[in-house]
Amino acid sequence: AAVKSYAAVDLGASSGRVMVGRVGPDSLDLTEAHRFPNRPVRTPEGLRWDILALYAGVLDGLRAAGHVDSVGIDSWAVDYGLLDADGALLGNPAHYRDPRTRGVAEQVWATVPAAELYAATGLQYAPFNTLYQLVAARSTAQLAHAKRLLLIPDLLAYWLTGEAGTELTNASTTQLIDPRTGDWSYDIAARLGIDLELFAPLRRPGDPAGLLRPSVLEETGLTGPVPVTTVGSHDTASAVAAVPAAGERFAYICTGTWSLAGLELTAPVLTEASRTANFTNELGLDGTVRYLRNIMGLWLLQECVREWGHPDLGELLSAAAEVPALRSVVDAGDAAFLAPGRMPSRIADACRESGQPVPESRAEITRCILDSLALAHRRAVFEAQELAGHPVDVVHIVGGGARNALLCRLTADACGLPVVAGPAEAAALGNVLVQARAHGQVGDRAEMRGLLARTQPLTRYEPRGTTATWQAAEDRLTAR
Ligand code: LFR
């Protein structure tokens, strides 16, 4: 039977890549066609994405990929570009770490109380949710001139094909979608003066998204027609689709710049307890709900490594493994760590202020970060089970952190559950598999996951020791 090739464009906060997935009746392999840096730029107006550099990287990647049967695009969530009446981009998209949303949530809650907002949208509070970004931009000339808003993957798909749509899994991170209906929250938008007409029509993973334009074919040397297929365009939705789990009793942690830790559910959890625990109900494939918490993730380490001039990561992690466990921990869910810069001293400050030993060496700081992440993973996995009434027997770690053995081992120990690590390129694989499904090559989600479990190398970590020391560390954190 035929093998088909799919290009998966997967854009992360620090790099983008174009991967080629080859799918056969019982085979799945992934190779990298092109990887390019994603360097946000601090402009006088604020922190912005260099969207043209990203688009150039996508075109280079498609050229390097060669013939493919289809193209799918996923990226980080919440951010968008605005187009004018001619369809031209109005400025560089703002970065979700840009401080322009500071204090905006309080303003929004004065109109729609936080509890009501959660009951209607199921989205955890994060200052960067698109809703807050749009309110922050309310009186800008750019928004006044905008006729169309496209989320990042939809913007790139528009440039490639000329067709505009709003992909649902990513739309669910705007805080303007009702997770019960999968349709817009018309009432919330109206009360906050957000014009839903800015958004292109909703489309779902698997839907066709147009054909590469003639100029794009020319630019990339590809022979048409090449269709673009809608995938779970939120990278986390694609990553969850590629969790190689069997059955339903699993938790997942999508690791990378962020750790997104939680469950796949069939219905949202919109209770007040869920809101105060800051769990989010994002939408996944096939009407599923990604019930999860955003944890600051390897961002904490990436920022330290940047500050230290990029020392060898392998050596740093081996040294960290030798440092005594759980000497000091920080709250890896704390929005105080959101902005870039000075990360080692911000972590040291947090330890000092909470009366813990201050980590000094690079190894100690790294250990503090990994212990803190494992602890935050534990808390999210436990609380999600409780709030959703959905018990699990195993934790799957996918994404870049699946390659970090120390992080996986500590997470298994902290949770007292086995951890299955891999695949590291989960977002790209989920992207490929949704395209393969749309092209009739794989069946339902369970079949996609079975194919992953059979074809991808996975590492299992059994929990060691007692979880009491982790509980004690958690009590130390929450006592404050
Ligand atoms: C991960 C991610 C998270 C989202 C954050 C900001 O890459 O997409 O799911 O909360 O980036 O968009």
UniProtKB/TrEMBL annotation:
Q: Which GO terms describe its cellular component?
A: cytosol
- Using the record's annotation, list all stretches that form the Carbohydrate kinase FGGY N-terminal domain: 67-240
The record lists the organism as Streptomyces aurantiacus
Q: Superkingdom of this entry's organism?
A: Bacteria
Which PANTHER family does the record associate with it?
A: L-RHAMNULOKINASE (PTHR10196:SF93), SUGAR KINASE (PTHR10196)
Domain Carbohydrate kinase FGGY C-terminal per the UniProt entry, residue ranges: 251-438
Q: Under what name is this protein listed? A: Carbohydrate kinase
Any Pfam family the entry gives: FGGY_N
Which family would the database say this protein is a member of? Belongs to the FGGY kinase family.
A GO molecular function assigned to this protein is: rhamnulokinase activity
- Signal sequence range: none
Which keywords, in A-to-Z order, does the entry hold?
A: ATP-binding, Disulfide bond, Kinase, Nucleotide-binding, Rhamnose metabolism, Transferase
InterPro entries per record: ATPase_NBD, FGGY_C, FGGY_N, Rhamnulokinase
The record's Gene Ontology biological-process terms are:
glycerol metabolic process; rhamnose catabolic process
